[in-house]
Amino acid sequence: MDKSQSTSIQARLRLERYIRTFVGIVISLFLLWRVYNVIVIQQNFGADTWVRFGLSGLILGGMYALIAIGYTLVYGIMFMINFAHGEVMMLGASGGFFTFEILRFIPAPSAASPDLNFLNAHPFISVLLAFLVGILISALAGFFLEKIAYGPLRKAPRLILLITAIGASIFLQNLAMLLFGPQRKNVVNPDILTRGTGWILKVSGNDVLISYTGVFSLVLSALLMTGLYILVQRTKLGRAMRAVAQDKNTASLMGVDVDDVVSKTFIISGALAGAAGVMWSIHMGLVNHYTGFLPGIKAFTAAVMGGIGNIPGAMLGGMVLGIIEAIGPAALGIDFQLKDVIAFSILVLVLIVRPSGILGEKLSEEKL
Amino acid sequence: MRSSAVDKGLRVGVIFGIIIVTMFLIGFTVTGAGLVGKIFGVSSSYSAPPSLIFFSIFMVLLGVWAGASAAARPLTEEDSLRRALTAGFMAGASAGFISAIVGLIFGTLAGKGIDPRTYLPSVSPDSIRTFLFNQPVPLGSLLMFGLLTVSGVGAAFVSHFLRNNNALKTGLHNTSAAAWNLIGSERVSRVTKNPYARYAALLVFAAILIILPRTWGGYWNYVFGTVGIYIILGLGLNIITGWAGQLVIGYVAFFAVGAYTFALLTAPEPHNLVLNFWVALVLGVLAAGISGLLIGLPILNLRGDYLAIVTLGLAEIIRILLKSDLMTAYTNGPRGIRDIGGPTLLGQSFISDVDFMYLIILAVLVVTFIATRLQNSRTGKAWYAINLDETVARATGINAFVSKLLALSLSAAIAGFAGVLFASRNQFTGPDDHVLMVSINVICLVIVGGIGNIPGIFLGAFALKGLPEILRETESYRLLIFGVLLVLMMRLRPEGFLPAKRPALEKSAASKAVGEEV
Prior knowledge:
Strand content of chain A: under 5%
Structural class of chain B: mainly alpha
Number of strands of chain A: 4
Helix content of chain B: over 70%
Strand content of chain B: under 5%
Order of helices and strands of chain A: HHHHHHEEEHHHHEHHH
Helix content of chain A: over 70%
Distance between the termini of chain B: 57 Å
Order of helices and strands of chain B: HHHHHHHHHHHHHHEEEHHHHEHHHH
Structural class of chain A: mainly alpha
Radius of gyration of chain B: 28 Å
Radius of gyration of chain A: 22 Å
Largest interface: A-B, 55 and 51 residues
Largest sheet of chain A: 2 strands, antiparallel
Distance between the termini of chain A: 23 Å
Strand order of the largest sheet of chain A: 1-4
Oligomer: heterodimer
Shape of chain B: globular
Strand order of the largest sheet of chain B: 1-4
């Protein structure tokens, strides 16, 4: 390539970056003005409301983060958007729901209360069982997805992988609908985790409920994320995963079993999604075949926002997205019906302004 | 080797067992029996329990499939009858065992008066009873086991016999060779190459297109009008996905833009603009094309699958906005827009279903013409190059960004065109017409027919939008089948049923050119 041409391409790229930055600044200024208007001038909501929104955002963000990690892990290794990941999470949520339902029918009478069931007699074991079942189902779903659908296409063009993933997503969603029916099912928690109970916090004279289910979900997702971080950074499997993400061929030359690592990555991402699913069913309380779709897409948004392929990025992106989604409609003074629009608009904005995400390294154009 | 036969039989059997159990749990065993009945000309009603004979035939078919696929293609050189029978037996028996166990469980539960429909709504008492052949529980499960085992062994035996019978094989070979000879023979090709014969065929085709909408009545006009609109959508999506290689999941977004622009411009409510049909049509197409351009501008110079997800997000944004209270004043919200204008020409309105069918046929022809011209144009070749290898395409001087942008806005404009036709034909459009399922239908039909191939899209649209109208029983399983179809197609035949012939053509043209130069 001769020199004048290369400089002209550089100039074009620089111009493009300027345009992106400019658009970003304009949009952020507009949003800031809007938020300032709503919060400082109109003052529709008191501090207690903002705390409430922030808390629910944090809890939601934890779940998004867990799902987003699954997207990022798989993207890092196979360069594919695992479109069926939301459905994997839905299967985990259904697993948790059905575990609770089964345990509710097992009688465990004691002297004090003769018609006690297992769910309330041993709530901790029940919750543990629900998580085990949900995680197991989702991990298996991830494993079989890779084995049956994606594995044979490892060398195929990415379009084919993406279409396969969409097919798998449609299949799982409709299978769940035909098996369990389309109506939303109410999840009955053990009594100690009843939704709507919790600690009461006084903020500017008003009560703010810190629900047990919310705290439970948040703590658990923080623990799982820490665990995953340690797994990726400190263990042999984690090192193999990072190596495969960097370069499959070189990794396999260094003695890494690439197929095995890919398979385990799908299991791990499925397990995290399953845990998020069970949390979703415990905290949100409604499960049907459609449960996984929106969280799935939003978690993908979170993964892109944090920088796809970057695990801390996915965690951060998930938390930030959860909080924005909870606070956003109120802070921008728009209807609460539009909270899903906010998440999708963020996706579009991130791709316009900073396609590599918050924590994404400056990726070459190849990788984007 | 016996052990490999046992292994293979077991594996196939377990897979088929799981398939049968899943079919039972989603209620497909009843539907399948109904379909078998339909083949024999007995239409089933939804209320009556399915006929046992047809159910047995359905199960035998599954058992035969399992046995035949277990016995087919031996892993080792040895292809003995014993091996085939072992594999067939293992497949049939393990599938039968799994099904029998499930039948036993549900039969016993039903006997105790527990209705599984609380959690598994598709498992009706009728379907359990049919699954056990209307017999007492133990006998019924035994029958299921026996039926599948026998059909598995039988299928293995027959398939082994067919495979190793030389007389039959040569006979088949000769027949097919003769048939091919007839098709490829000089006489036939002289007829197909003859320009007058071609004109005659075209004339017949045109006559059919003119006569059919008048004769087959409103229902089929509606069905095939939908097929036509999906053909247009498929041709549009094919430009960006089939030729330029960029997947667009939220294609319905552009369809919605076209439909709503047209609807708002021609309906008396909520804005009372009531523009002329043709003006509104052009504006609807333009709006959709421009929306495609705007979406493409920031996204298309990133590589990868972002376009897929961003359009998905856009489709959801548009649907939610259309439904929300915020936009109710402008778009009528969830109620949708009524009394959308129909086509007019020289002051006369053509809104009868026959006239509209003609309009759709005309539109399909126009879009097909545009697509064909595009495919063979310089731009079409640039898209094809980008699809094959973007880096190489750039190195040969193609501006990949501009090409992709053009492809996306053309696709979007065509989707807008389809949206206009859709809104105008139904005289109504609402947020529920623009759900994600529309895009998934379009993606499916493009891929099943043959990605990048125009006749393939016609085939796909007829298969995916026309067939379900004929096979009404399978309505609720349609999306499930689409999902399976997508996964299987990508694995077994990613180029679709009618694959694009383009690479071969290019190669032959290139070699011809080289030959001439030499």
